[in-house]
Specification:
disordered N terminus; elongated; single chain; mainly alpha
Length: 308
């Protein structure tokens, strides 16, 4: 015997308006808007609307890709339907694992996925659901290749979708490690290293921040964001009273890219701990040894005159 499963008329209406031809977009938009309004009424009536809301969300999400010229209007309806789905889940919670899987599916299984906010789903997900969501999201995201320094970013649809999932998850949980994981999947420039170091610095994880400064300097070869990276390291070392480490960062930066500006920065920090005359002679001698005389003659003359 074949089991009859009743089909709710609301998803049928949504689908009908999405596929209907021969009528103006304004009429179709009004029909879809009315359907979402009826979904709100259904959700307000109490338990039993969750599955209908899921079907409406998925139909609308699929419709965004089919009708890209009307993307903004359809995405607004998707956002409203998702809000209603979250309310329905709070009133009639699904299994935490099932909800976690559905949320990931709707964000990664369509050409134009929506941006889901986790806060409205917090009570329905609970600890178990959020743990499943996190584990699955992290597993998928860590499977993406790291974009190395100097490489062109390969941001295809899947990467964008997973990036949005992880950014929202990191924001929702306040987990610094998740935030760092997101950032370290793209290390195509020195500015990305600076972002990682800044997040770790702001979280009070200074040693890790300094480690990423070092990685960034090695990757950039003293170019691009190198000055900003060194500034971060020096500022933190001075703030914590690590004066000698601050001098060491400035010394390394000067030797990597000798200039009047980097020389002045080194002198300013060295003045904090003393011993500038000896350090000055050391670094100038090292610059002279490491480069052909004709390449540094003018620079050395400028630095010597500038320091008198």
């Amino acid at each position: 015997m074949r089991l009859y499963v009743p089909v709710h008329p609301l998803p049928v209406r949504v689908n009908s308006w999405l596929v209907r031809s021969g009528v103006s977009w304004a009429e179709r938009r009004d029909g879809l808007t009315a359907a979402v309004a009826d979904l709100a009424t259904l959700v307000a009536a109490g338990p039993g609307a969750r599955r209908v809301a899921e079907q409406v969300v998925e139909l609308l999400v699929a419709g965004v890709a089919e009708h890209r010229e009307h993307r903004a209007a359809l995405q607004a309806l998707v956002d409203r339907a998702l809000d209603l789905h979250a309310v329905a889940c709070a009133a009639d919670p699904p299994g935490p694992a099932a909800l976690a899987d559905w949320l990931l599916h709707v964000q990664t299984g369509y050409p134009e996925p929506p941006e889901v906010r986790l806060a409205p789903y917090a009570s329905a997900l609970g600890v178990a659901g959020l743990a499943r969501y996190r584990a699955e999201a992290v597993e998928r995201f860590t499977g993406l290749p790291v974009i190395g320094f100097g490489e062109t970013g390969r941001y295809d649809r899947r990467r964008w979708a997973l990036l949005r999932v992880m950014e929202e998850l990191a924001e929702h949980t306040g987990d610094v490690d998740l935030h760092v994981l997101v950032l370290t999947r793209d290390l195509s420039s020195g500015w990305h290293y600076l972002q990682v170091a800044t997040v770790l610095r702001d979280a009070g994880r200074v040693e890790e921040a300094l480690e990423w400064v070092g990685r960034g300097l090695r990757a950039t070869g003293g170019r691009g964001a190198a000055d900003r990276l060194v500034d971060l390291a020096v500022d933190e070392c001075l703030r914590l009273g690590w004066s000698e480490r601050a001098v060491a960062w400035r010394r390394e930066a000067f030797l990597a890219a000798p200039s009047v500006a980097s020389f002045e920065r080194l002198r300013a920090v060295a003045a904090v701990v003393g011993g500038w005359p000896r350090l000055r002679e050391e670094v100038l001698a090292e610059v002279a040894r490491a480069r052909p005389p004709e390449a540094v003659r003018d620079l050395l003359a400028t630095l010597t005159a500038h320091d008198r």
